[in-house]
Amino acid sequence: MNKITLYGADWCPDCRRAKSYLKDNNITFEFVDVDLDKEATAKVETINNGKRIIPTVIINNKPYTNPNNAKLASILGINPEGQLTLFGADWCPDCRRAKSYLNDNGVKFLFIDVDKHDWATAKVEEINNGKRIIPTILLNEVPYTNPDNAKLKELLNIDTNKEHKVYDSIIIGGGAAGLTTSIYAQRDRFNTLILEKKNIGGNAFLTEKIENYPGFTEISGPKLMERMEHQAKTYGAEIKTGEEVSNIERKGELFELTTIMGTYLTKTVVLSTGSTYRKLGIPNEGDLIGSGVHFCATCDGAFYRDKEVVVIGGGNSALEEGIFLAGFCKTVKIINRSAEFKASKTYIEKLNSIDNIEVYTDNTPISFTKNDKNLFKGIIVKDNKTEEEKEITADGAFIFIGLIPNTKSFKGLVDLNNQGFITTKNLAETSVKGIFAAGDCREGAIAQVAAATGEGVLASYGIRNFLK
Length: 468
Ligand SMILES: Cc1cc2nc3c(=O)[nH]c(=O)nc-3n(C[C@H](O)[C@H](O)[C@H](O)COP(=O)(O)OP(=O)(O)OC[C@H]3O[C@@H](n4cnc5c(N)ncnc54)[C@H](O)[C@@H]3O)c2cc1C
Prior knowledge:
Elements: E1 4-8, H1 13-24, E2 30-33, H2 38-47, E3 56-59, E4 62-65, H3 69-76, E5 84-88, H4 93-104, E6 110-113, H5 118-127, E7 136-139, E8 142-145, H6 149-156, E9 166-172, H7 176-187, E10 192-196, H8 221-234, E11 238-241, E12 247-251, E13 254-259, E14 262-271, E15 275-277, H9 285-288, E16 293-294, H10 297-300, E17 308-312, H11 316-326, E18 331-336, H12 345-352, E19 357-361, E20 363-370, E21 376-383, E22 389-393, E23 396-399, E24 403-405, E25 435-437, H13 449-467
Parallel strand pairs: 1-2, 5-6, 9-10, 9-14, 10-11, 14-25, 16-23, 17-18, 17-23, 18-19
Antiparallel strand pairs: 1-3, 3-4, 5-7, 7-8, 12-13, 13-14, 15-24, 20-21, 21-22
The structure holds flavin-adenine dinucleotide (FAD).
The site of flavin-adenine dinucleotide (FAD) has 36 residues, from helix 7, strand 10, helix 11 and helix 13.
């Protein structure tokens, strides 16, 4: 067994990092606090030519000055192939995407949950100039911020040149609509591939609580979507995440789909790409996205525990997410451009009964503000009646002002309405035979999980009729 002594102090972030790393890997060690032990300080100074550098770690009588985790791993044989460390969190969609890509391709890596280690959060901030961006990976000690799958493929020399198979159906988008199409089509013995640009689950994965999906009085979005994914896989669906379809072309009887990873051939296509959050388009918004300005309370709300946030919007999503944030934030200030909320009465009533929610209706957002460190400070709003502008300060902001259909890549391929939603008839048929549409990207969609699953069923019947 290795004999390890770690000389350090509680206030030293690198000492905490090294301690956590050893503990996480079940390595036994002795910790000596140099602040409490003069002899230990002298020892550290002797090892480091008179300098007090901590942590200093002695492993089997050999000293190491401030060894990073990769060094500790290599000395102690932890994660031996693990030149790759992935800093992330379970709630972060891109972390899950990167983890599943690495796992799918048999790449060994060390996952460090930033929620469990404050040294890891500090490390991520140090790499990203103060921003908490995850996933951040360290490959042979070189950092990469949120690499997409193509970048991971390039960095790790992953060979994805597999035989060109023809699918009965390729489903673009792994939300409720896409997963349901796949479940039904697989049970009809059609082979399907789901291509998902981010992670399986779509928008429903982002919501903390779903109370209106039949069969469940209450279920978390991630849990519901994981069940759908599991069901699709059980019936044999193939799923690839981190693959955005950028082009669809006819190739004789087939369609060829292009993603950053290559091309795929299929007899039918289902467009189930959902919708995206609308931005305010005000100054400083772009700069602050991800570090002060957010669109998903379930994803980023945890960063604001016991802090103050503003929520912008007045519909169901804004109020639902504002109420969710009020559960653990100190204060939630809801800013609504109109004098009245558009949300349902249930939400408005709930909102009024919560003490730590402040409401600013009839106020137009003008610009986000930054402090002298260039970090988020607040938002300037204009009172629509008095035209008076004022700054509302907070620690972060969440924007919930509607959705834009994710159909840009299909413009010119299938008919879209003025707002970009895909127009359909009969069994989810688009203007192109063999291409179907389902869910929130479709004109007239109800934008509810149950509705999206129903549309997925229709698309699967469309596939069945077409392939017959
Ligand atoms: C905050 C919030 C709370 C909600 N709460 C509820 C609720 O309580 N109850 C309820 O019923 N509904 C709720 N909804 C609505 C519900 O989530 C949606 O109606 C549902 O997710 C729509 O499913 P979908 O499959 O059509 O689209 P999405 O869920 O949006 O899935 C589309 C998928 O396609 C992927 N994609 C997009 N473009 C491409 C491309 N080019 N290539 C590959 N993949 C692509 C996206 O990444 C996404 O994963 C909520 C929505 C939000 C945003």
